[in-house]
Design a protein that fits this description.
Layout: H1 3-19, H2 27-40, E1 82-83, H3 84-105, H4 109-126, E2 132-137, H5 140-144, E3 159-163, H6 169-181, H7 187-195, H8 200-208, H9 219-233, H10 236-245, H11 276-284, H12 292-305, E4 315-316, E5 322-323, H13 330-350, E6 354-356, E7 359-361, H14 363-378, H15 402-405, H16 422-425, H17 456-459, H18 463-478
Length: 481
């Protein structure tokens, strides 16, 4: 069977899976829960409005050993370290979700804005010392050697920063993007990232690269930050920066999160590490001079994702889940689905369509594919399992998350030390605290899911899985079938 016939068969099978799905999901409820998840990831002094009550104050002295207030922000996943690189990406996408689909959030809009504010307040602290940008708080190795509640942490809370002498352009530019996307003009951070070029892999590699190494280089983050600053300020300097440097991405070998070269080029890459597709989609709406190459690249992104496209660069499981190499696959399903919806919105406004060889893709097609991914996550899949905690009747019970898996302070007030939580990690029972709204890494490419804390690749939730899903759920809340 030739490649063309194989694509037709694959696309037909996926379309049959999509067609079997009915409008049975409560997108509004899922949206509420996806935002509640961020309250479960909060670090610092929790406000009186905190709704996830089993969580308590934690890490109240972050940064104090060096005389800087670094209290606040989010824990990225199931551990207790604040990694600012993925945190900033999550914040940027949350803000983009509000900018695109905020009206559809209705009563959840204040919660979305509060989720953004919690991060930006922290990033303002992390960029408050001239010449420094703090990029991490906590020792990843020490933290990962323990299984503790965040409220009990006694592992080192070491702050790590980049500077002129020890640059970290990717994380600094991502923070600039987060602040700009949150309608906060913060040019100094971007200028710092651009003028002091260098990867934080080189300056902080021993502490960051076992967790969030930048495999795709820092050029995409510089363009991403400039694109958001242009959107926020309309200043020509940022548009010129994008158009003059966009071709830098042509020479980058994109790797997935395990450092393995990713097939299919750069056009279908968007996540905490690689921003290529996000830059192209974001700028495609600008209508500014010299935007044609970015629009062409955005079209190539669509053609790289659509199941029936002859230039598709992603895989699909038998049940219809979009799949890319590396771990925590649902980060790809949520982030690329969000971009599909954003670009469909732009195409509708322009009355446009995309040609992928012989395949013509209209906005409705992009929306259909995005809906199929969201519905899969919410339970329209071969296992009939929701991968969002607390949504539906069947969802993972043993997620890889320290705070969720250990009894709360309200029930177990005595201190649990570094190794004291091991019994809860190895327990065969369900987690005692529901991290409502959390979306785990998801099933494997054969649609199988092992509900195991030890299988963190599939069972660990992260902020950067949830953040793009917020925008997608907001859209479908106001556009049900």
């Amino acid at each position: 069977m030739g490649r063309g016939q194989s694509l037709v068969v694959l696309a037909t099978m996926i379309m049959m899976v999509m067609a079997e799905r009915v409008a049975s999901h409560d997108y509004g409820d899922a949206l509420s829960k996806s935002l509640l998840f961020f309250e479960g990831q909060r670090s610092g002094k929790l406000p009186p409005s905190q709704r996830m009550k089993w969580r308590k104050d934690s890490a109240l002295r972050d940064g104090f050993q060096i005389g800087v207030d670094l209290v606040g922000g989010y824990y990225d996943a199931g551990d207790n370290v604040k990694f600012n690189f993925p945190m900033a990406f999550s914040t940027t996408v949350l803000a983009w979700s509000v900018l695109e689909f905020g009206k559809s959030m209705t009563t959840e809009l204040p919660n979305a804005l509060e989720a953004i504010r919690w991060a930006t307040d922290y990033f303002l602290k992390a960029t408050s010392v001239p010449g420094l940008v703090f990029v991490q708080v906590g020792d990843g190795f020490g933290d990962h050697a323990c299984w503790q509640r965040p409220e009990d942490m006694d592992t080192p809370r070491t702050p790590y920063a980049v500077s002129r002498q020890f640059p970290g352009s990717e994380v600094s530019a991502e923070i600039a993007a987060a602040l700009a996307a949150s309608s906060m003009v913060f040019r100094a951070v971007f200028d710092f990232a651009d003028k002091n070029r260098g990867s934080y892999n080189d300056t902080l590699g021993p502490w960051v690269c076992s967790f969030y190494c930048d495999y795709s280089g820092y050029q995409d983050e510089l363009l991403w930050g400039a694109a958001w600053l242009f959107k926020a300020t309309k200043a020509p300097i940022y548009w010129n920066y994008v158009t003059q440097n966009i071709h830098d991405l042509d020479h980058i070998l994109v790797q997935n999160i395990d450092g393995v070269p990713a097939g299919g080029g750069v056009f279908a890459e968007f996540g905490w590490d690689t921003k290529h597709a996000g830059v192209n989609v974001l700028i495609s709406k600008s209508n500014a001079d010299n935007s044609a190459p970015l629009i062409s690249n955005a079209d190539k992104f669509i053609c790289g994702v659509l199941p029936e496209s002859p230039t598709r660069s992603v895989a699909y499981s038998p049940g219809g889940l979009l799949f890319k190499p590396g771990g925590s696959n649902l980060q790809h399903a949520t982030s690329l689905s969000f971009l599909l919806l954003v670009y469909a919105h732009y195409l509708n406004q322009a009355k446009g369509e995309i040609h992928c060889g012989h395949v013509v893709a209209r906005p409705s097609k992009l929306i259909q594919v995005a809906r199929s991914q969201v519905d899969y996550i919410l339970g329209s899949n071969p296992l009939k399992m929701s991968y969002m905690i607390g949504y539906g009747f069947k969802f993972p019970q043993k997620i890889h998350h320290r705070g969720s898996s250990i009894p709360s302070i309200a029930l177990h007030q005595s201190h649990i030390d570094c190794k004291g939580g091991g019994q809860y990690f190895s327990s065969n029972g369900p987690n005692p605290n529901l991290l409502i709204g959390a979306v785990v890494g998801g099933p494997d490419i054969n649609d199988f899911y092992s509900d195991s804390r030890a299988d963190f690749v599939h069972s660990e939730p992260t902020t950067y899985i949830n953040a793009p899903l917020v925008g997608a759920l907001a859209y479908f809340k106001s556009h049900p079938l």
